[in-house]
Structure formats: structure tokens, C-alpha cells
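Researcher: I'd like a structural prediction for the single chain below. Treat it as a standalone chain; there are no partners to consider.
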Amino acid sequence: MNIKKLLLPISLLFSTTGCVGIGPNATYYMGTTSFHYDPSYSPYMVKLNGSEIGGGGGGMNTSPVKIGLQEITWKDSKTGEIHSAKNQVIITKEQLKGQKYLAAHLYPDDTVEVMTSNNWPNPTEKGTKWLNQLKNNR
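Model: Treating it as a single chain, here is the predicted structure.
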């Protein structure tokens, strides 16, 4: 069999697969974590589109991240209640391009802010202020 005839279907398969990763449903694999700013409970099972991500800023997972509208959920460690982002969280290709880490910031009003970076993620100033205010009002 001619080697060119053998390689043609294989090369077409790989080029098609590569296009799937570039399109609107592209999946990026990144280090993921979350930060929580409500002292009344600890979250667990923080998920981004059904995939568990790390927590507390210290735990890190490698998770699939897709472009577009995100579903972010987490559970209350005291009650098991499931929380979900009350705001629309949308991730753009520009946010992910060339970045290594994604952090989901879970605020006390159940809104979520997603930030990407090349360095280990840190808590947000907004979240830290909110956490300190809630701790001082106890």
C-alpha cells in the first residue's frame, strides 16, 4: 500500500481534531481553585461546569475550562445546601489565552467572580474587605 494513502486519513483526522479544540467549544486545562469570603460556613465540592475545582486558595486541581457561560456550584459544609452563582459568569477566550490558573471567588451574596493569572491566585481585595467586615460584625 502506498504510504501517502495511509497517511492521508490519519492527517485529516488529526487536523479535524485540532479544529475542535480551537472553535467556540474549546477546552483549556488549567490549575483551578476557589476562594470563599463568608465566615458563617465552609464550602466544599466547588464545581465549575460539573468538574470539581480546588478550594481555599491552597487546594489546586487541573480542571477543564470552556469558553462561554459557566455553571458554578458549591455546598455548605454545615447543611449540605447547594449554592450556585446568582450572577452570569462568562469566560472569554481572551481571559484564558496564555494563562495558567483560574480562581473562582465566591462572595457572601452568592455572586461569583472568576479571575485568571499566570501566578498562584490570591484573594481579591473586595472579598477580603467583605470577610473582615462580616467577622467584625459577629
